[in-house]
Design goal:
Number of helices: 14
CATH class of the largest domain: Alpha Beta
Order of helices and strands: HHEEEEHEHEHEHHHHHHHHEEH
Mean pLDDT: 94
CATH superfamily of the largest domain: Alpha/Beta hydrolase fold, catalytic domain
CATH topology of the largest domain: Rossmann fold
Largest sheet: 9 strands, mixed
Structural class: alpha/beta
Number of strands: 9
Low-confidence stretches: 3-21
Length: 428
């Protein structure tokens, strides 16, 4: 036998008997109950490894015959001895697939991180949608199951966190499973008490100065007064964007104007950015579209967030619109019940269950512990921030002039230092 033949035999033998490379962590993940798929992903230098994990979850563990779905979980690994940041995403977790994604808390406490896509969103949905299984308690059960399994690999301290609806989600998770995590950080998380809560409208009227409020009101009025010249631009924009609606487009125009004050304070908060009355129609139109465009009210624009709209109508609540200062200029006679007409339509009728928000408010007021709530002063969602002054276990921080983009690292130095120190002490 030639040397070449012997080399080939040895090479082929080595391929047959040696297993394909798999990291120690990947093997541990694949062995967890309920895990049906694990894939290694690229990651930033902050972490050592990253994996996409699919957990098979029951739609309702108490009704096994209802079926299962696969839930996406993104795990970024730093060390088995590091704490864990547990991100309870309220929507899709597509962003967590990016190799560059590092949660703010992960950097602050030098931690591993897990991001869980919410049930019924993006790729974490059952093949057939039964809305009755989209509840806050069942979603919390998803998180509990994931945590219980992964805690066998990561036994150190855990902190749950989320932003906006994700913030609501981590607070509800803490309420349903108060012993699961060691701390909770919820960003800009409302606790609304009704589908049209009623607190947001007066809150918006109290933000900043009268001069700022007048600027916003005047811009809304200007858009309505110029309906004859701006609406054709609006209509053309809708056609080019291929948007459709459950209400007439003339009404959508009105709703964009009504939404403007909420959206402006939620994300912008600087009235210097509002065009003056002297500006051309095109500039007025462009600003309106930028702040509160019609895609938000469209069937196409809300398709990926339909599960959220169902949850808002069922348990989470939402906000209404103030119309009295614009009544003479609006086409609609009332904005009442707009949510059902625009977002749910005739086929999805939902009765609001207020007990969930009542229970959550009570829990945060009396029993929650090691919890930090972060809000922005100008963010209209702050109108529905829970009252927690009687509970020493909960700290609520409101950033002056802050918007919905308020985060720990954007807080004033004293508040930021306090939060970092607290988190560091809780995670030891």
């Amino acid at each position: 036998m030639s040397i070449l033949h012997r080399f080939l035999l040895v090479f082929l033998f080595s391929i047959c008997v040696l297993p394909l490379f798999s990291s120690d962590l990947q093997s541990k993940l694949e062995a967890l109950p309920g895990v049906v798929y694990v894939e290694e992903l690229k990651t930033t230098d902050f972490f050592n490894e990253k994996f996409l994990i699919l957990f098979e979850q029951y739609l309702d563990p108490s009704v096994p015959e209802a079926g299962k779905f696969r839930q996406r979980v993104f795990l970024s690994h730093k060390s088995y001895d590091a704490p864990m940041v547990f991100i309870t995403e309220g929507y899709s977790a597509d962003y967590a697939e990016s190799e560059r994604y590092v949660n703010e808390l992960s950097r602050i406490i030098d931690a591993n991180q897990i991001c869980v896509e919410h049930r019924y969103f993006s790729q974490s949905a059952p093949a057939e949608i039964d809305w009755s299984y989209l509840t806050t308690s069942l979603a919390a059960g998803d998180h509990h199951n994931i945590l219980v399994n992964l805690k066998s690999i990561y036994p150190k301290k855990w902190v749950s966190t989320g932003i906006s609806k994700g913030g609501q989600t981590c607070l509800l998770y803490q309420m349903y499973y108060p012993n699961d995590v060691d701390a909770t950080v919820a960003y800009v998380a409302p606790v609304a008490t009704a589908l049209e809560d009623g607190r947001h409208e007066p809150f918006i009227n109290s933000i900043s100065t009268r001069k700022d409020q007048k600027k916003i009101n005047n811009f809304q009025k200007e858009v309505l007064k110029r309906r004859a010249t701006i609406f054709p631009m609006f209509e053309q924009y809708v056609q080019l964007s291929k948007l459709s609606f459950r209400v007439p487009i003339e009404e959508v125009y009105d709703y964009c104007v009504l939404e403007y004050s909420f959206a402006f304070w939620q994300w912008i908060g600087n009235t210097d950015k509002i065009p003056s009355k002297k500006e051309a129609d095109s500039k007025i139109f462009q600003h309106l579209i930028t702040v509160s465009g019609p895609d938000y009210f469209s069937i196409e624009g809300s398709a990926s967030t339909k599960p959220f709209f169902y949850q808002a109508a069922k348990e989470l609540g939402y906000y209404g619109y103030q119309t009295n200062h614009l009544e003479d200029l609006l086409k609609i006679t009332t904005s009442k019940n707009y949510f059902q007409k625009i977002f749910l339509g005739k086929d999805l009728k939902v009765d609001f269950y207020s007990q969930t928000s009542i229970d959550l408010q009570s829990f945060l007021k009396t029993k929650a512990n090691n919890t930090i709530l972060i809000y922005g002063e100008f963010d209209p969602w702050t109108a529905a921030a829970p009252e927690v002054s009687e509970n020493n276990g909960v700290i609520k921080i409101v950033k002056p002039s802050g918007t919905h983009a308020t985060r720990i690292m954007s807080l004033p130095e004293n508040d930021k230092d306090m939060v970092v120190q607290l988190l560091t002490s809780w995670m030891k």
